[in-house]
Amino acid sequence: MLEVLIFATLNGLVTGFLLFMLASGLTLIFSMMGVLNFAHASFYMLGAYFAYSLSLYFGFWTGLIFAPLIVGALGALVERYGLRKVHASGHVAELVFTFGLAFLIEESIQFFWGRDTKNYQTPDLLDFPLFTLFGQEFSAYRGFMMAISIGIFIALYYVLTKSRVGIIIQAAITHPQTVSNLGHNVPLIFMGVFGVGTALAGLAGVIAGPVLTTFPGMATVLGSIVFVIVIIGGLGSLAGAFIASLLIGLLQSYAIASDVGMPDLLNLLGISFDRSHPLNDLWTMNLPQIAPVLPYLLLVLVLIFRPTGLLGKREE
Amino acid sequence: MALLKKSSIWIAFLVALLGLPLLFDSILAISILNQMAIGIVFALSYNMLLGQGGMLSFGHAVYFGLGGFLSVHALMLIEYETMVFSILWIPLIGGLFGLLAGIFIGSFSTRKAGTVFAMISLGIGELIAASSLIFSSFFGGEAGISGDRTFGPTFFGFDFAQNIEIYYVAAVWAFIATLFTWLFTQTPAGRMANAVRDNPERAEFIGYSSRKVRFISFCASGMFAGIAGGLFALNYEFITEENLNAATSGRVLLMAYIGGLGYFIGPIIGAVVLTLMNSLLSNYSELWMLYLGIMFLLTVMFLPRGFAGFIMMHQVAWVRGNMKMLIKPYIITGIPALLFTACAIVLIEMSHTDDEVFHYLGLALNPASPITWIVILAIAGGAFYATKRSLIQLNDAWETANAIPKEEEA
Q: What is the dihedral of CA B205, B207, B212, B218, to 10 degrees?
């Protein structure tokens, strides 16, 4: 029992930190532009594919450094020549634009790389068990994923709250006009933040690609979960996104690792149904089975009872 | 007389719907027409939500899918003679359950429009799509469920075994649904939906609950989506989880947006164009989804009001009788633009083909030779430059065609 709990917690934390790398960029972009970037997870996917191609020729570590840079540059271009133009047509158009972009990126990836799963491998250097607990191994690569994610989290926190650039960004989010009057190039700041946000998503893709498999559907798998996180955490709140990332990561990990289900609950209550009952599916449901549904259930509940999310600001 | 004038466009629409299979009577054409009829109803219901009511939904397939699933179950009940009625009424069952789902989900999701609504719809869409895989006795798991439409009482001797018979059923239902969605826009509820979309605060000040107004639109939209789902069930006789998941929700958004939000005819155009692309383009190229994506992004960027908006842009020039001033500039810009598109397509296709010789527009091209590439790239570059240059004179012509005439100014 204890070993299951410890490993579920560790895996949940790895997922949670990974999700935060995506959610942080998404929520930063939202606070600036007021638009949820539907294509955010697509940049994550692009990161994985670029890193895969680079790793074929130059090895994993080159991919780790250059793939996020390429993705970030692409993101900046999308902001400069796409989003900025659509901005004039209003929020719905922006949301629809990013939605179409996600569609286009998925199709383009199938065009360039094909539909099959890519054999993107963890580097040999990290191909050993980090530690063994109760006879189960925890791979060094997962430890590396966690280290990178935590490193990014600390760096992001430091840059945003302590550095001069971070302070200008924070000011530009709330008072773009004033910041512009002070002589800063606000559109450039927006483009930069969009680029850095997508680069972070790309980095998440680079390190997640070998573990979560690199295939054209990987953006869809994670995309809506990241959305759920930024909403549950409260739109525009970085701390909220952090809490929600870990929450969702742990929740899913525990649900998958557990083996309880409706039959246990019914036994406890002393109720039984025979197999021919019309709701048989409901009575035989178990927790690992509904694990993929849990984040959405949580999302709907949060939106109904606390539409601003955990740490979101009160609506004006 | 006034009534006749008003209804003439509807009579024309009905005649067109019923007459189309006489012009296009191949098996493929009938199947495309069926898909169009379904698409039109579905896209209209989506426009009711987003275009008229300002609610951006990423989970509209839920109502379509639930309506469809219930319709297939109804088909099964007719087959086992638990219920006895003609399959003509199946879309009504779909609509009823779409409405019920709309009432239930709308009761808590329509409190806010905008991002909150969009996210709730996304969450519910994912929730229901994922749950449908769990409750496999009702939804049939990944394989879905299927029925048979040939049972039940016949209608004047028709047993609906043929696709063409189903087309007439679908056409009549599409006509009814179109008529009622249009009538809905004329009711106070439809008018208020526009008001709440544009300014919920003002609508509240004149005494309307914006939530209630949104709720009514939402339920009506769910009902029409359910009717579309019922038509889908009749046409294909099966339905799977794919019909209520995010991909279908995305497709209806594409249809309505490309066609033109806010214009009543927009979603109809969108449904027709997208169904045609889906059925015809997919025969020619496996990359048609890529083209669809590019077309969608270009539409959002350059024609934010869709195809219908593009047509309506010419209203002023038309009224002033200046359309002929635009014909020549359009041709001058259109030729290089078409040339550029053709070059772009051939470049995309050539980089994807394994064939030794690539046949395109009657030309036999060699994808392996760099000369082919250089020549096409050069033509594409030239065409792009020519398009860009000719846009200037098109812009000038546009200005003059739309300018206020001198005497009016004075």
A: -70
